[in-house]
Specification:
Low-confidence stretches: none
Number of helices: 10
Oligomer: single chain
Helix content: 40-55%
Order of helices and strands: HHHEHEHHEEHEHEEHH
Number of domains: 1
Strand content: 5-15%
Strand order of the largest sheet: 2-3-5
Largest sheet: 3 strands, antiparallel
Shape: globular
Mean pLDDT: 92
Distance between the termini: 28 Å
Radius of gyration: 19 Å
């Protein structure tokens, strides 16, 4: 009988993650854990590869990464832009030590997030594409998310994040989950006040976990899958029928 990793490598990607999700905390049993962790790392190695493929493809289609579009009208705006991560930053060499220290504080991380921190690092696809955004605005409906292209954005595990957890202990009741910030919401990505970041409640001794506050109401792995399906810009879902050729180019071989 094939293990989870073998099945994943043969193309049963979503089926494997679905079955790992059903296991819950049993994914940490001795006979399952090494195979499940290998699936998580293989998934995130592919994620990193796809991110590196998408960056030049998006640029070829006229997408401009970064914040040059943003009018800097105050010192606070300048400071906010300076504080934003680059479009892609691999994890530091000592990421394993960061993860170990963080899990000592918070408890177990989902395998998916643990592997993302280890294999990918930080990604921030915030930018602008005037043509896509003009088409997008024509389809904006009041109360329908997202309000923009909502580019993929995931903070890596940093010392600042670990310090944030340490500070949060003063306000958390014993046993209360910590809402670990994963990304700004669709508004905050563009320096507009939003409802709060996308989060994962930890500890979570499971293969994957829900990505809270995100408009697809799905798990972290499935969120990443959706992001790739729309070239790193899940808001393009709204206008996918208008840019089918561009999306086909972005998706090819991912």
């Amino acid at each position: 009988m094939l293990g989870f990793l073998d099945r994943y490598l043969q193309g049963e990607c979503q089926q494997v993650w679905d079955q790992l999700g059903v296991l819950g905390e049993d994914v940490h049993t001795a006979t399952i854990y090494p195979d499940a962790l290998a699936v998580a790392h293989e998934t995130m190695r592919r994620m990193r590869h796809n991110i590196e493929v998408l960056i030049p493809r998006l640029e070829a289609l006229g997408y401009h990464f970064g914040y040059a579009w943003m009018p800097l009208v105050s010192p606070a705006d300048i400071a906010w832009v300076a504080d934003q991560p680059a479009r892609f930053t691999p994890p530091p060499e000592d990421i394993s030590q960061h993860i170990e220290r963080f899990e000592e504080l918070t408890g177990t991380l989902p395998l998916s997030l643990r592997a993302f921190y280890s294999e990918v690092g930080t990604v921030n696809f915030v930018g602008t594409h005037p043509d896509w955004e003009e088409r997008f605005r024509a389809y904006i409906t009041q109360g329908l998310e997202p309000p923009n292209l909502d580019p993929i954005f995931v903070w890596g595990l940093s010392e600042e994040l670990i310090d944030l957890y340490a500070l949060s202990q003063k306000s958390l009741h014993e046993g209360q989950p910590f809402p670990l910030p994963i990304a700004p919401d669709a508004y905050l990505k563009y320096n507009v006040s939003g409802s709060g970041p996308y989060e994962i409640a930890v500890p979570a001794a499971s293969a994957d976990a829900p990505l809270l506050n995100e408009w697809h109401h799905t798990t972290f792995v499935n969120y990443l899958r959706i992001c790739l399906h729309y070239g790193g810009l899940p808001g393009l879902q709204r206008i996918s029928s208008l840019i089918s050729d561009e999306l086909a180019y972005l998706r090819e071989g991912l």
